[in-house]
Write a structure and sequence with these properties.
It comes from Dissostichus eleginoides. The chain is an alpha+beta fold. It has two domains: about 120 residues, no CATH class; about 140 residues, no CATH class. The chain contains nine helices and eleven strands. The strands form five sheets. It has a three-stranded mixed sheet. Strands 1-2 form a two-stranded antiparallel ribbon. A two-stranded antiparallel sheet has the order 3-4. A hairpin with a 7-residue loop joins strand 8 and strand 9. The longest helix is centred in the first third of the chain and has 17 residues. The two termini are about 30 Å apart.
Length: about 260
């Protein structure tokens, strides 16, 4: 996470410089805090176990910190089954250094525990961060092409917004100017989640098939894209044990249905 760049006196020390816990403080002002947190999956608690004040840190260095943390957790009987992080290039390099691969045609979604090579630790890229990155890509390149050649087009999102602004009402969705000009609020996950939603997909489909507006002709691939991303995000972001549909928790009875969504995505 980014932190305010400054130094200050605290007792007999100066705080604010890069410090990775080695006992040596670099003469570089820290701009980020790399935080490691353990989250229980069978109980309701989470505990930060370490933080490092950094300016920049390459993937190899991050991987070394993860390995050291895993070794220490293993020593006190904590079993780690997954590693979750967001997706900047340094973290992707860290994941590769640990032994996992995130290449779509050469996927290896786990690495072996440094203290127990029979135990796999699975890598999960944070769904909320990935959704924001997808919003960035979609709105920037404007056209995505499916394997079958059909085009997924940002212009349909803009046309739907124009239509709703002109008519002064929304077709059962939350689409507004903030979703089109999202860069002003790029940290808000809810904007991306509201964009990639079944309600926006339904509005596009209704505008093409029922209202027959010509500006929505050919939007079927975009509709399917929005529905697929909406379902995948619900599956990856499920947390309520009483959730239903795609938001239901993944368990033995539902895992085959739930895992079909990410494969489609």
């Amino acid at each position: 996470m980014y932190i305010h760049k400054q130094t200050e006196f605290g007792g007999d020390q100066i705080h604010g410089y890069v410090d990775i816990g080695s006992g040596e403080i670099e003469n570089v002002i820290a701009t980020q805090a790399l935080v490691l947190m353990v989250v229980a999956i069978n109980e309701s608690w989470k505990i930060p176990i370490a933080y490092f004040l950094i300016n920049s840190m390459i993937g190899t260095e991050r991987a070394n910190l993860i390995r050291e943390s895993l070794v220490r957790l293993h020593a006190i009987g904590v079993r780690v089954i997954s590693l979750t992080c967001d997706g900047p290039s340094q973290n992707v390099a860290m994941i590769r250094e640990l032994g996992a691969k995130l290449y779509i045609f050469d996927m290896r979604s786990f690495f072996l525990h440094p203290e127990d090579h029979t135990q796999k630790i699975y890598v999960i890229l944070d769904p909320c961060h990935m959704l924001k990155l997808l919003q960035n890509v979609f709105s920037t390149v404007e056209v995505l092409v499916r394997e079958d050649g059909q085009q997924i087009m940002w212009k349909y999102i803009e046309e739907l917004h124009k239509l709703q602004e002109k008519e002064g009402l929304r077709l059962g969705n939350k689409l507004k100017m903030a979703h089109i000009q999202w860069r002003n609020q790029k940290m808000k996950v809810n904007l991306a989640a509201q964009l990639f939603s079944s309600s926006v997909a339904d509005a596009l489909e209704y505008s093409e098939k029922e209202l027959k507006y010509p500006q929505f002709t050919g939007s079927a691939a975009t509709v399917q894209f929005l529905l697929t991303i909406d379902a995948a995000f619900d599956v990856f972001n499920s947390r309520n044990p009483l959730g239903r549909g795609h938001k239901a928790p993944i368990k033995p009875a539902t895992k085959h249905r739930a895992m079909g969504i990410p494969e489609e995505a």
